[in-house]
C-alpha cells in the first residue's frame, strides 16, 4: 500500500490545519494507522493513532488540540489540528501497520509562525 500525506502549510499560532493521508487501497479498519512528526534536529515522535475508527490515542503534547479520524471508506486518514503552537512545527508523516509491516507516507510540512 502507498500512503500520500497532504494538507501541510504555513499557519499562525492559534490557527488550524487539517492533514490528510490517502491510501492507494482500502485498509481494513482493524489496522492501526497513525500520525508521527519530526521537527528539525529531533527524532520522529508519535502524535496520534486510531484503530477500528475509535479509541484514538494521542501524545500528551497534542491531547485536546488534535483529532485523528478515518473516513468510512477506510482509504483516508485525517488529523485535525487546532490551537497550533510554535512547537508543532514539523514534518508530519502518516503510517499504517499492516501485518507487522510499517508503511509510511512521504510527509507533509507544517510550519507554525508567531
Give the topology, please.
Elements: E1 3-6, E2 9-12, E3 17-23, E4 32-38, E5 45-51, E6 54-58, E7 66-70, E8 76-81, E9 90-98, E10 101-104, E11 108-113
Parallel strand pairs: 2-11
Antiparallel strand pairs: 1-3, 3-8, 4-5, 4-9, 5-6, 7-8, 9-10, 9-11
Shape: globular
Uncertain residue segments:
none
Helix content: under 10%
Put simply, the count of helices is: 0
Number of strands: 11
Q: What letter string, H or E per element, gives the SSE order?
A: EEEEEEEEEEE
As an assembly, this protein is single chain
Structural class: mainly beta
Span of the ends, CA to CA: 37 Å
Mean pLDDT metric: 94
Largest sheet: 7 strands, mixed
Rg computed from alpha carbons, rounded to a whole number of angstroms: 13 Å
Relative strand content: over 45%
3D structure, described in words:
The chain is mainly beta and 114 residues long. The chain contains no helices and 11 strands. It has strands spanning 3-6, 9-12, 17-23, 32-38, 45-51, 54-58, 66-70, 76-81, 90-98, 101-104, 108-113. The N and C termini lie far apart (37 Å).
Quick rundown:
The chain has no helices and eleven strands. The N and C termini lie far apart (37 Å). A hairpin with a 5-residue loop joins strand 7 and strand 8 (76-81).
Amino acid at each position: 500500500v502507498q500512503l500520500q500525506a497532504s494538507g501541510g502549510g504555513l499557519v499562525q499560532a492559534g490557527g488550524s490545519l487539517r492533514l490528510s493521508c490517502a491510501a492507494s487501497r482500502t485498509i481494513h479498519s482493524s489496522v492501526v494507522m497513525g500520525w508521527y512528526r519530526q521537527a528539525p534536529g529531533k527524532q520522529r515522535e508519535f502524535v496520534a493513532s486510531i484503530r477500528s475508527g475509535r479509541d484514538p490515542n494521542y501524545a500528551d503534547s497534542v491531547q485536546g488540540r488534535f483529532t485523528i479520524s478515518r473516513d468510512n471508506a477506510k482509504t483516508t486518514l485525517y488529523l485535525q489540528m487546532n490551537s497550533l503552537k510554535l512547537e508543532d512545527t514539523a514534518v508530519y508523516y502518516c503510517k499504517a501497520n499492516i501485518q507487522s509491516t510499517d508503511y509510511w507516507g512521504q510527509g507533509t510540512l507544517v510550519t507554525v509562525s508567531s
